[in-house]
Amino acid sequence: MSAQPTPTQISRRDFLKIAGLFTLSSLAPLSLTRHAHSNPAKQGEGLPNIILLVFDALSAENMSLYGYARRTTPNIERFAANANVYRAHYAGGNFTTPGTASLLSGTYPWTHRALHYAGRVAKPYEANNLFRALGDAYYRFAFSQNAWVDLLLSQFSADIEQRLPASAFSLLRGFTYDRLPSSNTPLSFRGLEEFLFHKFDRYHGALVFYPLQRALTALAYQNKLAQFADLYPEGLPSNHHDAFFLLRSVFDGVLQSLTSLPSPFFAYIHLFPPHDPYLTSKEFIGAFDDDYKPVAKKIHPLSEKHSYAALLAERQKYDEYLAHVDAEFGRFYEALVRTGLSDNSFIILTSDHGEIFERGEKNHVTELLFQPLIHIPLIIHAPGQKHRQDFSSPTSCVDILPTLLHLRQQPIPAWCEGKVLPGFGGESDEGRPVYSIEAKQNHIRQPLWVYTISMILERYKLIHYSHYGEYFNALELYDLHNDPEEMEDLSVSKRRTALELKAELYQKLEEVNRPYQQTS
Amino acid sequence: MGIYKISLPPRREIGTVFGVIVCFIFSWVMLAFFKRLNYWVLYLDITSLLEMLAFGLVNALLESLFTLGLVLLLAIALPSRWFREHFETQGALTSVMFLAGILVMNATQSMPSIVPRLPFERATIPALCLFAITPAVNIMFIKSPQVATWFASISRRFVPFIFIYVPLSFVSMLFLLIQYIL
Q1: What's the N-to-C CA distance of chain A in angstroms?
Q2: What is the model's pTM?
Q3: Contact A188, A177 (CB under 8 A)
Q4: pLDDT tens digit string along A180-217?
Q5: Number of A:B CB contacts under 8 A?
Q6: Residues of A in contact with B180 (CB under 8 A)
Q7: Which one is predicted more confidently, A331 or A470?
Q8: Chain A interface, mutation test: which of B59, B71, B131, most A Cβ atoms within 10 Å?
């Protein structure tokens, strides 16, 4: 991290800079590129680049590559023709913060403790991250359109040479946190996005300025929308923080950034689509106006109990947006091939979590952990790879970090909970449990107590709900081999199996909770 | 400068109006803070919580000054017998109606507002109604001196809030400056 002045060293310039925080921040320039270091001397010549591309809320269950009935991802299929495809890959959680933190730290949420909305990795684990693990042999670049991920990335800024703001490549941005001094991203973020201008809560702190801010943003938005209404007649996609963008421009911007990075580089790119709002381009509106009706599933007690028809309509919008994302990815991939980057780079495509449109639940703000929420894509293209290889044993997002280290012939650190992926030196292991965790109502410094945990072991998936009202200490058991749609809960008919799996889960929980039991 | 000096209402009356505004806006920010606190305590440490509160207090001070500025603008722009001569009552009343209108707008807006819309859908209608009846209420107060006196005396009771919240806001500002620099 760059050296910060102490209070006694406040210069006049610093004072003016900070004073501007409260009055002139909206006039700050768009560029918020952060150079934690100038490009240091690298010892990594000859190493392939690594491009880790994460699509937010991309569920494998909605991708034709993974067998979905609608042809949503023909371009990703084209990419997968020269890659390793992991067919049973799982997210660490069911929303951005735990999912991404697990991906970047190689640890499960019960370890890194980024459990909450806009949460961060617990201080003792900050150093355990992919950027630091790869080391400065790579030029490390990070860009996330998702502000919550940006908040996580700010924790690792000492190990990132270049980090772009969440609003980079956007058409416009509102009064967002990245206009404030970058010296304290969490403070700016929490102050503005989580409190004063919180869009998901009526109790936002800025009583007078909030409507003004919305009005000014609306005016700017209407102006941009008028320009691009032909392309996006239903509205411009955004990142929930007033960064409205054209998907094509974002991909173009990312490509331009990649081609200008010094090799070898590690680029972490986290794109907001196909996260809601599902505002697709004109070309894809109505693309799935078909008779497709997924199997109706029982409404779950913990769901918001949306109707089947409402979920069907949401699903269609999601699928159409996904098809748009796929088309732009196709263009992006062609450019990677054209520029030669695909020949000397590992290209990893994955997601942080999935999206659900069944059982009365939509999106991913939920305590549920059904397959659409945690089954995510993982496709890895090795430099020059010209064939496709599929792997069906369960893998987890925590496996990416050790795999990349293994490829560099670096030792896997003891704190890492992942394993090297099959196809890159690891072995398929059906007997290894893979976890996904939801615990956003649990205190960060206490043992896991309020949670939903999914444990996949061999053919079975156990879901344990600890303390959700009437759904107290509840178990669900599914046979993913015979019942991939999770239609039949076997927790009663196969009670013994369920209890054995629960005992194994409890054993694991006891282990991961131990440090917190000692301190709580 | 001379023109503004002549047009501005007496300082004591401005203080009364500012007291009402400060009480309203700071109460809101405290309410908003404590409403969200039960989730924040799950994952934020005490420093982060203080930072959030400081952000809210500094913003509330700016909002209070902004609102007072709007009311003073009215006092300058409108004929003096309509507004400035009864500034203590009229200013306080207008501020309350204005802030109540925003509260109503807040309560009726659709959530979440990811895509900003113009006009603010249904949210604008009740708020606009409140704004529209404000002049009528003001006239009613002018016509009834007893009500005006009663309202002014109530308004004066809010002045102490200035001495609580404004210094707190300055301390918060200092705290935030230090947090950004360190």
Answers
A1: 32
A2: 0.90
A3: yes
A4: 877 788 889 999 999 999 888 888 899 999 988 888 88
A5: 143
A6: 18, 21, 181, 183-184, 187
A7: A331
A8: B59
Both tokens of residue A305?
A: 């109990």
- Chain A hits for B32, CB-CB cut-off 8 Å, are 195, 203-205, 207
Of the given ranges (A31-40, A41-50, A449-458), which has the lowest mean pLDDT? A31-40
Spatial contact of A415 and A486, defined as CB atoms under 8 Å apart? no
Optimal mutation site among B115, B122, B170, B173, interface A, most CBs of chain A within 10 A: B115
Residue A9, pLDDT score: 43
The 10s digit of each residue's pLDDT in A82-96 is 999 999 999 999 999
Give the angle subtended at the CA of A395 by the CAs of A329 and A320, to the nearest 5°.
30
Structure token digits, residue A363: 């999106």
Dump pLDDT digits (tens) for A211-247.
888 888 888 999 999 999 999 999 999 999 999 999 9
For residue A487, the one-letter residue type is: M
> CB contact, 8 Å: B132 with chain A?
no
Q: Is B124 on the interface with A (CB under 8 A)?
A: no
Q: Which residue in A181, A190, A214 is closest to B51 by CB distance?
A: A190
Q: What is the dihedral of CA B117, B122, B128, B129, to 10 degrees?
A: 180
Nearest to A37 by CA among A162, A155, A220: A162
